[in-house]
């Protein structure tokens, strides 16, 4: 049972790291174009980024620490 949670933690950590890196590479995420398209709703991009990048990475690391 512990290996299942450790595996899920590893997957979440990898996905969170990939989303974080992809967000900061200009070719993958054109923030200037997003700002033009979203206008005043642009801060929502950062909410989605935090939820899918650093938070997944943090959750994955916590699972790896506790269920190793």
Give a topology summary.
Elements: H1 2-24, H2 31-38, H3 43-52, H4 54-66
How would you portray this structure in words?
Helix 1 packs antiparallel against helix 4 (54-66) and helix 3 (43-52) packs parallel to helix 4 (54-66). The longest helix is centred in the first third of the chain and has 23 residues, at 2-24. The mean pLDDT is 90. This protein has one domain (2-66). It is 79% helix and 0% strand. The protein is an all-alpha fold.
Q: What's the Cα radius of gyration?
A: 15 Å
Q: Ranges with pLDDT <50 over ≥5 residues? A: none
Mean pLDDT: 90
What percentage of amino acids are in beta strands?
A: under 5%
**How would you sum up the global shape?**
elongated
Number of domains: 1
Helix percent band: over 70%
- Total DSSP E strands: 0
**Oligomeric state, counting identical vs distinct chains:** single chain
List keywords for this structure.
single chain, about 70 residues, mainly alpha, elongated
Summarize this structure briefly.
This protein has helices spanning 2-24, 31-38, 43-52, 54-66. The chain is mainly alpha-helical. The protein is elongated and about 45 Å long.
